[in-house]
Amino acid sequence: MRAAPAVSLSVRPSPHWRAALALLAAVALGSTVAWAWQRGDALSAGAAAAVGLLALHVLGSARRRPPLGLRWDGQAWWLSEPGRPGGDPRPGEVVLALDLGAWLLLAFHPHGGAPGPARRRWLPLQRAGLEADWHALRCALYSPRPAAPPADDRGGRRP
């Protein structure tokens, strides 16, 4: 079986992704406000305000997110994040979370998953804007990974 081709692309949230995120935030806020109005007490009003602030934070951070670089070199996945301390691409694993044909949701798990900045990153992708690399990306996601050489391999001979 052939290895998946190398692919490199820039990942940025599309306007459609931002619209879906805004719709989800509006539904969460609307249902919380309806619940708070039905209850009519101070605690529920505080909860509605907290959900509203959280929704604004999520939408604002999605709007300010710089494009990320995702690369498959035939052996490993690499993620480049501008503004990250160190700035070097990090190796990791990409897990396909959702495949809707023209839309993909990927989870990038960096190797040596330490807490903080080295945590999982969600990568929403759509075919629009990535047409030239879309087929290669899907091949890299669905192709089997190359086998790693044994740790005690000494030139192909075994004692």
Strand order of the largest sheet: 1-2-3-4-5-6
N-to-C CA distance: 30 Å
How many β strands by DSSP?
Answer: 6
Topology pattern, helix = H, strand = E: EHHEEEEEH
Mean pLDDT rating: 81
How many domains would you count in the coordinates? 2
Mind telling me the C-alpha Rg? 21 Å
- Show unreliable segments: none
Please tell me what the overall shape is: elongated
User: Could you tell me the strand content as a percent range?
Assistant: 15-25%
Task: State the helicity in percent bands.
Answer: 25-40%
| Count of helix runs | 3
What's the main sheet like?
6 strands, antiparallel
- Helix/strand-derived category reads alpha+beta
Give the gist of this structure.
By secondary structure, this protein is an alpha+beta fold. Helix content is 38%, strand content 24%.
Fold and architecture overview:
- This protein folds into 2 domains: 7-12 and 67-142, no CATH class; 15-64.
- Helix 1 runs antiparallel to helix 2.
- It has 159 residues and is of the alpha+beta class.
- The chain has 3 helices and 6 strands, in the order E-H-H-E-E-E-E-E-H.
- It has a 6-stranded antiparallel sheet with strand order 1-2-3-4-5-6, with helices on one face.
- It is elongated.
- The chain has helices at residues 15-39, 42-64, 131-142, and strands at residues 7-11, 68-72, 77-80, 90-99, 103-110, 121-126.
- The longest helix has 25 residues, at 15-39.
- Helix content is 38%, strand content 24%.
